[in-house]
Amino acid sequence: MKRVLHVVTAMAFGVLISGAAAWADMGAAAVPLKAAVGSKGETHNTEGIEHFKQGHWDKAKTHFMEAAKADPQSAEAHYNLALALDKAGDHKAATEHFKKAQELGQGNPEIQDSPILKAHLKMMK
């Protein structure tokens, strides 16, 4: 019985790790998006993109949060925040912001066709 428990635990851990690895693989190709011209969050979004490119996930996350706060209707700010949250390992919060980005960015194919967004939203179901 003890051996069965160890095997089941190992299998569950493997599934968890493979799911996280799949998100990480998709996240490697994902790049943050520029804010719409005139967005109140444009400056923070631009700063966040620069930090994201350098691998400064926490600083990027802070700027993307400020961009989303300044312009709550910015699909790009929510998408970028989700990317930073994903990189930081906060997949639950990332999924929430990917969902918001999908709702707000109906006309943006970069958001609608994003593999990492789709993976997060699929895991939500």
Labels describing this entry:
Serine Threonine Protein Phosphatase 5, Tetratricopeptide repeat; mainly alpha; 125 residues
Would you write up a description of this structure?
With 125 residues, the protein is mainly alpha-helical. The chain has a single domain, classed as Tetratricopeptide repeat domain (Serine Threonine Protein Phosphatase 5, Tetratricopeptide repeat, Alpha Horseshoe), CATH 1.25.40. It contains seven helices and no strands. Mean pLDDT is 85; it is low at 4-18 and 20-25.
How would the blueprint of this fold be written?
Elements: H1 2-29, H2 42-53, H3 57-70, H4 75-87, H5 91-104, H6 109-112, H7 115-124
Helix pairs in contact: 1-7, 2-3, 2-4, 3-4, 4-5, 5-7
Low-confidence stretches: 4-18, 20-25
Largest sheet: none
Let me know the CATH homologous superfamily: Tetratricopeptide repeat domain
Number of helices: 7
Under CATH at level 1, the class stands as Mainly Alpha
Beginning-to-end CA distance, first to last residue: 33 Å
Provide a short characterization of the protein structure.
The chain is built from seven helices and no strands. By secondary structure, it is mainly alpha-helical.
